[in-house]
Amino acid sequence: MLRKAVSRVPAISRSTVVLAMLIALMTVIFVVDTVTDYAVAAAVLYTAVLLIATQFLSVRTVVILTGASVLLTLVSFELTRSGAYEVGIINTTISVVVIGVTAYLGLKLKSAEQSAHEARERLLRMARLTTLGQLTTSIAHEVSQPLGAIATSASACSRWLAQEPPNVEKALAAVERIAGDANRASDILARVRGMARSEAPRKAEFDFNQAVREVLELSQGDMTRTGAEVSLSLAEGLPAAFADRVQIQQVVGNLVLNAMEAASALPDRTLRLAIASELEPAGKIRFSISDNGPGLSSETAQHLFDAFWTTKERGFGLGLTISRAIVENNGGHIWTQPVAGGPGVIFLFNVKATGAAA
Fold first, then answer.
1. Is 204-352 assigned to CATH 3.30.565.10?
2. What whole-number distance in Å separates Cα of residue 291 and Cα of residue 294?
3. Quick one: pLDDT at residue 285?
4. What pTM value is reported for the model?
5. Pairing state between β 204-206 and 241-243
């Protein structure tokens, strides 16, 4: 309670100071309007008082100041002794009307500003709800990969144990893969929770090539199923990457999955993927994956990273949007380029390396 009371003191003090200054200004205006000739319509200066009041004071206070301004204008007219009386009547009437109109417009403006503020608050609440909706879809999209791998490993484990005699060694290997995928799913959920809280990525040094190999191992089942031919060219002697390892692996996994799905759209063609890493002249580590799929149309290239835009029948339209957000949050950049002299497309992204310039 004490903290709340203390926090309210500055606002109350400011209102009091503003009100005192306006009263002093109104007093000056009243004196000037009284001692000058009827032809000098000094009362119109009350409009400045009212305009200031609408910015800093409550509606009730503005109404009271408006009434006081009108009253002071009329009293000043009665006390003024110099000038043409008819001119005084005209100027006083004009001043009263101007004061009333100014107060009305000022209060309408104040009401409009309040309505705009409330509308902004509603939009912010709606945006938060929309973000939560996108986040829910993101969780489903990102966790589906390790959960699928867990299901595959569990099925394999059952087959190994059902053999006579049971192949315990391979069953244990499948259990280890299940544990690894479960930990990966848990890490993804922890990162998504961190993104929901607007936390910065957990950047640390890690072996970039090893992180890529781990993702490819998880994708081995899909590669075997589709008959993909994979060319792997990971540069040796790379410095350690400096980024969020789990998030970068999410990006690599998304790009690998997208490449296989795009190329599989052409069943009469053997799927070929070329995956590479290299050190850029600027000191960042670059990852690239190319496929021999249909490539990108001009429309697809234009909307490639837009949320909820997809060419897949069952796609979420979030994979590349999430990937771009992750790469940029880790200080990198993601882009595409056509395959030279052939079909397909190349996806590339870079991340900071230890010792790279910011």
1. yes
2. 9
3. 95
4. 0.46
5. antiparallel
